[in-house]
Amino acid sequence: MRTLSDLANVLIGCRIVSRTRWERAARAGGGDPGATLDALTAHPPDWYTATPGDTAEAPAGLSEYQRGVIDLWLEGDQTPIERQLTVNQFLLLEKLGEGGQGEVYRGRQLNPPRFVAIKTLTRDTETSRARFEQEARTMMKIQHPSVARFYLYERVRDEDNKPTNEYLIAMELVDGNDLHRMVRWSGPIPWQFAVKWGIDLLGGLAVIHQNGFIHRDVKPANVIPLGPPPEAGTRPNETAAKLLDFGAVGTVESAAVSRSGRRVFVGTREYAPPEQWAERVVPASDLYALGGTLFYALTGRPPYEVEGRDAVAFMKAHSHAPIPLATDFNSNMPQKLSWLLQRMLAKRADDRGTAVELIEEFRELLPTDDAPAKSVKPVRKSKSAQPAPIPARRPLAPPETETQGALDRVFGPVLTIFERVFLPARLRPVPGTAHPFGERVASLLRQPSVLLVFVLLAALFVFWIVW
C-alpha cells in the first residue's frame, strides 16, 4: 500500500512540487491522498509566475495527465511513475501522442523556463545513436518561420542518472488546432488560404531540403495554421502555417532500417508517395505528402481513402491508382490549383519539381490585392451534382459515407467536451487522429461515470413520463 510519504518523495523528487507546497497541501488534505492532490491542483504550480497584464487563467497545480498518472500509481499500477512525470530537466504535462516513432508530450523545461514539445525516440545501437546525434546537431541550425524550432536533443537518463537507449527532442511548442482537426470540425478551407499556407510550408521544406534533410511525415496533423480563422473578412496574408514534428526526419542518404536489418515504413499511409513504401525517399517525397495535405485542406479528404486503412491497398493506390482532381470534390477553386496539386501527386518523383519551383507557381495563384476571403465556403459536391465519374480521375477506394461525416460534424464538438470531462488525458483521441464516431462513443461508455450519468438521465426521463 503506497502512502502519502511515498507520494511526497516521488513528487518532490521529480520536482513537481516543492517541499513547502507539499506540506501545505498535506495539511489541507488531512492525511487523505485524494484531498491532498485536490489541494495541490487548486493552486498554480511552483514554476508559474503571473505576468502583468496577462489575462490568461493560471494553470492548475497538477495537469490532468499528471493527476491521472498519480491516481493510477496510488491504485497499484506497477509502471515506474518517475519516467511518466519527468524526463531529464523536463516536466511532462500532457501526452499528445504515441506511435511507432516514440511518444510526444507537452512539457515544461526548467532551465531555461519555457513550454516545449517533447518527442522521445529509441536508438539502441552505436551506429544509430551516432547518426541521430549528427542529424540532430544539423537540425538545430535550421531556422524558418514556417518550421517549428528544434531546441535541443539529449539522452534520457534513468533514476541512477545513467544514459538509456532513449533520446528526447525538445521543440518549439506551437499552440492551436492542427489542420486535420480544423478541416474535420469546420470543413474545407477557402482556396486562397490553402495557397498561402502552401507557400509557407514549401518555404520551410526548401530550407529543410537545402540542409540535406527529408521530413518524411508531412500531413495535416503536423501542420498548425496560425492567425485568425480562415473565413470571410480574413485576409490570407493575416494567417500562416507552421510545420511540426521532426521525429521521422532523415537525411537524403539515410534509410530506415530496423534492428533485424529489414526495411521499416516511416510516414503516414494516406500521404506517403510510391517511393516511400520502398524506403527510397527523396526531397520530392515531401512535396507529394504536402500535395496530399493541401488536397485534404481543400476537399475534406485525402487523395485516396481505403477502408480499414489497409497498408497494401494504400500502397497500390499511391503507386497505381489514377491521380484525383481536387475540383472533382470541390469546385470552388481555380482549375490551375487543382492541376498544380496533381503535379505534386505525380507517381514519379522527378515529375513533381522542387519546393523552390512550386513556390513561384503558388505565388501566381495568390490574389495580388490581398483581398479578404469571399464568404462562399468550399463545399464538397453532392453526388447528384457531380458529372459521371471519369475513370482516369477516380481514387482507388470509396470516400467516407456522408452519414459518418455528418455525425462527426454535428456531434464531434459535443463528444470532445464529454471526453475532456470524463476521460483522462491518456485515453482521449490524439490530436489530428481520425477516430470513428462509434469508437469514440464506445470509449466514453466504458467509463463508469458516463454510464452513471446516462442511467440517471434515463431514470429521470422515465420518472417524467410516468409522472
UniProtKB/TrEMBL annotation:
CDD domains assigned: STKc_PknB_like (cd14014)
Region described as Disordered: 373-403
Transmembrane portions of the chain: 449-466
Entry-linked InterPro entries: Kinase-like_dom_sf (IPR011009), Prot_kinase_dom (IPR000719)
Pfam families with a match to the protein in the record: Pkinase
Molecular functions per Gene Ontology: ATP binding; protein serine/threonine kinase activity
UniProt KW keywords: ATP-binding, Kinase, Membrane, Nucleotide-binding, Transferase, Transmembrane, Transmembrane helix
Pro residues composition bias: residue spans: 388-398
Domain of life: Bacteria
Residues annotated as domain Protein kinase: 90-366
Record's protein name: Protein kinase domain-containing protein
Naturally occurring in which organism (per UniProt): Gemmata massiliana
Classification lineage: Bacteria, Pseudomonadati, Planctomycetota, Planctomycetia, Gemmatales
